Structures are given as C-alpha cells and as structure tokens.
Amino acid sequence: MSPDYRQKDFPPQGPAPSVPGRGMVPFKSTSPNPPHNVQRALDTLASSGHRVIAAFGLHGGDRFLIPNGVDPTSLTRIYPDNDTPRVIRRGISIPLTPGCFLGLDLIALPSGPTQVEDPGVSFIESGRGGRVVLEVTYRTATNTTTSSCTISIDGSGEVFAAEPPNAFENMLTPPGVVAWPWPLVVDAAEFAKWGGGGVLADFTLSIYGALRPIDGTVVERPWGITVDQAATTWPSNMYTEAGAAYSQPPIDYPVEQLTDTDPAAGTLAIHRALLSHGRQLGPMLAWWGAGTEHTHTLADWISYDGGTGDDECPPIGQISQAWAHVPTLAAPDNNQGGFAIGHYARQADRGDAFFDGRTSELPVWVAVYGKGDSAEFKIQTGDPTGPEWSAIITTTKLGAFEWMVEPGWLEVGLGPEDAPTLRLFGRSTDPGDRWDARYMYVFFRPT
C-alpha cells in the first residue's frame, strides 16, 4: 500500500462477530480483560457479516423449473440450452456498506440436462450442468465499472440427469464468489476509488443451463476500507499502539487518541461497531421477483412476448382497478404472505430522529421494475385493508418495463420479534389497462 493511503482489511469471519470463548470460570475472581477481548473481536469498523441484498431459489416451493428425469430427446423443448440467460433478479442504485462488494452464495442440487435443436424436428441432449451469473455495475460520483462472477454446478449422474433420490445428502454448496470492481493489477488509488465508501450498485442475476437452485443469495462481501491520507476520516483499529492494533489485551478503558496524528477514537469505534452490527439486514429490507423457480415452467419463459427471445422472467400482473397482492394477485388480506420488516436497519446514532420510543419510522428507497399505461404500485406495512398510514406509491405510464424509484418512510418494528409485515400491491387506475411487475425492492436510505 502506498504511503499516501491508509487501509484496514476486514477479518474473514462469518455472519456474526467471532466472540472468544468464556472468559470466566465459576468460583474464580473476575478479570477486567475478558470484556476487552470481546470488544477487540468486534473491532471491525463495519460489519463483517454477509448482508443479504436479494434472494432466489425454491422459497418453499415443491418443484424446480427444470423437469425431473424427463428424457431430453423430444419433439418440443423441455430443457433449456446452455447459452440463453434467464434473468431472475435485478437491482438498482443500492448503497453499499463502505468496503463491501457484491457476491454470490448458493445451495443447489446437481443440475439437469440441456438441449439443442436437432437438424430434424426434435431436440436432443447437449450436456449437463448449470450456472448462475451475477453482473454488477459499481458507481460513484465520478467512476463507473462493471464486473461479474459465476457459480457453476455439475450435472446429475442419474438417468436423464434427474434429481438424486436423497436430495438432502446431495445438496451442493460451492465456495462463494465476489464481483470485484478492480482489475487484476490493482494499485492503492484503485483500492481507494471503490473501498472508501459512497458506492452504489446495479446488478443483474441470470441463470444459464439446467441449474436447480435451492437457496441462493446476492450478498455484501466485506473486504476493507482504503482512503487517502488527506481524508478527514481514516480506518483505524479500536485499540492502537504505535499506529497498529494492540498485540495483547488493552488497558481497562478504550483509548481515544495516542498522538495528534493517530486517531484511535476508542469509544467512537465501539459505537460504530455496535451501529453496523445492529443493521443485520441492511441495506436490503425486502425483495421480490417474479422469477422464482416453482412459479413458472420453461415454456412460460420461452413463449413470453410471443417467443421473441425475451430473457426476463415472465411478469406477474392483471387487469384490475382494485389493489391486488402482487405475488398472489388476490385482494389485499392480512393472511397474505409478506416480509417481516423488523427494526434491523435503523442506525443507533439516529434513534431520536427515527423513532419516538413506540414505533420506528425508517427512511427507505422503494424500487419497482414494472409497466402499465396507468399502473400504480404500493409498498405498505401494517393492515393492508386499513388506511394507508405507512405506504409508498410509485406510478408509471409507460407500456415498456422501467425502474420506478421513490424515497419514503415506512414503519418498522422495534425488534425482529415484533416486526410488522410489509406487503406489495399493484393496480391500474383506468379500466381495461393491465399492470405488470417483475421486481420490487425496499432498501435502507442513508440520510
């Protein structure tokens, strides 16, 4: 790292901070050091958890899009080819945690077969396997770059590449991958460009071949923060000694500052750690996509838009002037499924502004990818049949799919155990008009 830059790498730990083992033994005197061992374990400046940005897979469904054990030699296409993408999720303008980038995690069964068109009038098998590809565009105020990452799953060894008889023992979990924003040869300035905060991400998630995804997620993967030495805020250890982390348990209080040039800021670092670990699901609070495994067949994907090769998932929609619950197209009801939008994303240092001790009002962005000549889409928490006291409405008058992004405030719970339910609705304001939606997201809006 160039002397003009300062960097702090995040420790390679899992979804929660790694806390050392028990620090006290019963019937022995208490030492002041165990609490500080725990605080050192929390010394991350930003959460090292892998925050979920979007999810895909079966989601409790009873079947995959890929048929199970059907002979690939047929007169019609029943399996996908190797090269045509099926876009199952999109995201736009998602603010990333400083020093984090988008990656993929996947649990899947062995893949099925793929098909090609025979020179005659039938289709034949062309191989076995499937993959999921994440393409990400990172944006700052002055820079833009696009990168991608891929996870591949080998084909099943069963007859016609069927699902294995003991699915639980044959689930595959490959190592996670990351769409890094920098090239192979990286200098300090490139690290600082993307690892200093203020980065937005747009992503497209596509499936190729005969993948059988059980549960997949687009996640934030922590890497590290890099800033120029001239920056007003540096990444720093919670406890420092000569500009480096303590090599032994620290003194009994957090150091604020060792020298005029070494901003340790011990209590502030503790506050930042607690702040970031309290935002377990930030920035994404809710996600929905029409491209879910068990809700369509391959024929639906191929025939949508008249078989013109549209690679997007078939949308959900109808002709209706009354609000309809988007995933089921039924009238709004308290028994419909939704998202537990608990108090995960509120920032601790802004509690006075965000809630009054009884409820929590959270600033959010709502993003809808839909179309309609007079379409409206509503994101609402609380009673869907009652007054719209916690709702955000987006509108479009275009006949083609477009992103609608609106700021707003939603009520969320004081904790995940008392979280209100967030539901997604759509309608048309003119009779005879049809509305359609492919993706709907709600994510935290930094203020």
What key attributes describe this structure?
single chain; 447 residues; mainly beta; Jelly Rolls; five-stranded antiparallel β-sheet; 9% helix
Fold and architecture overview:
By secondary structure, the chain is mainly beta. Among the domains are: about 170 residues, no CATH class; about 130 residues, Jelly Rolls (Sandwich), CATH 2.60.120. It is about 10% helix and about 35% strand. It has 5 helices and 23 strands. The strands form 6 sheets. Strands 3, 5, 6, 7 and 9 form a 5-stranded antiparallel sheet that branches. Strands 14, 15, 18, 21 and 23 form a 5-stranded antiparallel sheet that branches. Strands 16, 17, 19, 20 and 22 form a 5-stranded antiparallel sheet that branches. A hairpin with a 4-residue loop joins strand 6 and strand 7. The chain starts with a strand and ends with a strand. About 10% of the residues have low confidence.
